[in-house]
């Protein structure tokens, strides 16, 4: 007789006391750890450590806005065109990681415009390292919410999502959120290892390209284990998440291959640490 994992976790951390959810906590934790990591990288590479806080604001806003608009336009455009007020009601759910990725890429372009020592591709190569970790935490948040569940499975590690909003919540399913979360954690360590080895000699586009290939390549694979997010996906040969992953993987291959040529030459290290300049000015 098979014994499955019964998943009946309350999405709220302190039910009936504080309306704080595990998802929100994990989301915030991922980005604050990411800010700490970026601050360490900035110190190593003589960039202003204080810019890490500004970068956090850009990335968090871009992630939320981009992920929300991604869900609106990629998954339910007809519904939100009829109910535009609900676009801002993100607490009801509906965030798409592909939209979040697009949002971050655009936001970092805007961030880099006024920072000549932190060009767009340079900052992308560093930010994708903690973003992979944030993706790990976000998928754990989805697990705590019993959402983005997998297809039925009889594997011994299958989960019975008792709180899932499906017709058959007692059916054992793939813990697809956990699959993705662990994948992103591994990718975080891979990218981190490359940065530790290359450091200031990291070629431009190397980790950004690899991030796109690994994250969205594996996203393409794990989509086969998930239930469709919206009804129209049932008529598609590949679901929306897979179709959106294909151009991301191709773009990643472009940047990764490009990093081996002249365009991928690493930026020179600034001669003076901007933080030291500020201290001198105050004195």
TrEMBL record:
Pathway: Protein modification; lipoprotein biosynthesis (diacylglyceryl transfer)
Subcellular compartments: Cell membrane
Gene Ontology MF terms: phosphatidylglycerol-prolipoprotein diacylglyceryl transferase activity
Main location: membrane
Membrane spanning residue stretches: 20-43, 55-75, 95-111, 123-141, 178-195, 207-225, 240-257
Biological processes annotated in GO: lipoprotein biosynthetic process
Any single Gene Ontology cellular-component annotation: plasma membrane
Protein keywords: Cell membrane, Lipoprotein, Membrane, Transferase, Transmembrane, Transmembrane helix
UniProt: a 1,2-diacyl-sn-glycero-3-phospho-(1'-sn-glycerol) binding residues: 139
InterPro entries named among the record's database cross-references: Lgt (IPR001640)
Family under the similarity heading: Belongs to the Lgt family.
NCBIfam families in UniProt: lgt
Annotated function: Catalyzes the transfer of the diacylglyceryl group from phosphatidylglycerol to the sulfhydryl group of the N-terminal cysteine of a prolipoprotein, the first step in the formation of mature lipoproteins.
Protein name per UniProt: Phosphatidylglycerol--prolipoprotein diacylglyceryl transferase
Source species of the chain: Flammeovirga aprica JL-4
Organism phylogeny: Bacteria, Pseudomonadati, Bacteroidota, Cytophagia, Cytophagales
Gene name per UniProt: lgt
